[in-house]
Amino acid sequence: MNLAKALGISAGESVAFVGAGGKTSAMFALAQDLKSPVVLTTTTHLGVWQAGLAEDHQIVQSPEEIHSLEFDNFQTLLITGPAGADERLSGLDEATLEALHSRCQRDGIVLLMEADGARQRNLKALADYEPVVPAWVDRVVVMAGLEALGKPLTAEWVHRPEIFSDLSGLPMRESIRVEEVVTVLGSDHGGLKGIPGIAHCQLFLNQADGSPLMAKGNRIAQQLSDKYERVLIGSLHQPEQEGSVFSTHSEIAGVVLAAGGSERLGKPKQLLAWQGKPFIYQVVINAVEAGLAPLVVITGADHLLVEEVLRDLSVQIVHNPDWKEGQSTSLKAGLAALPDRCEGVMFLLSDQPQISPLLIRGLLELFYEHRAPITAPMVNGQRGNPVLFARETFVALSNVTGDQGGRAVFNQFEIDWLPWIDERLLLDVDEEGDLDSLNRVYNF
């Protein structure tokens, strides 16, 4: 996908790029993706040669000059201070930058800025005075170049390697590993340094050229998903046809719907045995192993028995006292329990312990690749469970009523289907015969 979709940019936003491994390239690539007037600037400096990357370049030295600029004649307009003797374009002073921000915000124009320097290295550590990110910035994109992995910790690959060494604990000239990159990027003195509290914080792991670096990027993303709202993996140098971002990782919660009264079965199906464990226990274990976090279990009937089964697991239990009014009440209880930074939720059913971590991860990976509003499995032309809903569907889900579940909103959004060949995925348990069928197909 392209950078604009991967980052989730909206009209009128201000975005600061910091770090190393392709900041300027990312900034101009994003400007091209947006397909509308975009203003670019710097809070520090840019090389004179970089001005040629924009359609037009204006030198501005006062707030008053901002008001007379014409933005509509160009897709990309670079605004900086004058060049110095070192062949570097200076950044705008605070008052002029504030005026530019106000103008762009008023007119719905995206403002992109480079907020530190890296001397074209792949990774960097920050000096005391960096980064220079205004307090009003809406979004900060931290950049890192994966090509430095496996390379020696020297100035050839890392800007300010001595500081990087202090932060990571890696001795100078030793090979840089995933562990050191995770430590630095996840540190308040490293990748997270100087980011305003109001800003969305995202990480772009650039230079994922080839499967080995892509795999290492995935490892970094998994370990930093609690630090950054989104972690992008891609390549500005070797983009795919769909764009320069190959996958976009973010926090996806799991909600297990376990509130039903099992009227047709006549006993709590959440507590039926599956490979020696209660159904609900196995469903939760599969979700945890697949990486869904946080994990919420919605209880209703027999809630004390269900809670006792799960007492040793790290899950959030939410009791739904209105469970008799239908599945929609549990759906809403699950949505209400999710943190604001959660960008999606996967709903799982307590009577499907056969849903494997492999399938859950497959749905996650497909969502990370395309970020469709709904991601679901398809088995021989039949829709299956579980289903992943992106945040953009949450309002529609909250309006579902009665005994309807998430499928009530399927006709309102684009759906990304994951082909799956195992028809056992479609089985659930409502009656005694269903349990016999489930055990029989799994040879229990």
Can you tell me about this structure?
This protein is of the alpha/beta class and 444 residues long. It folds into two domains: 3-249, Rossmann fold (3-Layer(aba) Sandwich); 252-441, Alpha-Beta Complex (Spore Coat Polysaccharide Biosynthesis Protein SpsA, Chain A). 28% of the residues lie in helices and 23% in strands. It is built from 13 helices and 23 strands. The chain has helices spanning 3-7, 23-34, 63-67, 94-107, 161-168, 178-185, 211-224, 279-290, 303-309, 327-336, 357-370, 394-398, 432-441, and strands spanning 14-19, 38-42, 45-47, 56-59, 76-80, 88-90, 110-114, 123-124, 139-145, 158-159, 200-206, 230-234, 245-250, 252-258, 273-274, 277-278, 295-299, 316-319, 344-349, 374-379, 382-383, 387-390, 415-419. The strands form five sheets. It has a nine-stranded mixed beta sheet with strand order 4-5-2-7-1-9-11-12-13, sandwiched between helices. Strands 14, 17, 18, 19, 20, 21, 22 and 23 form an eight-stranded mixed beta sheet that branches. A two-stranded antiparallel sheet has the order 3-6. Helix 6 (178-185) crosses helix 7 (211-224) and helix 8 packs across helix 11 (357-370).
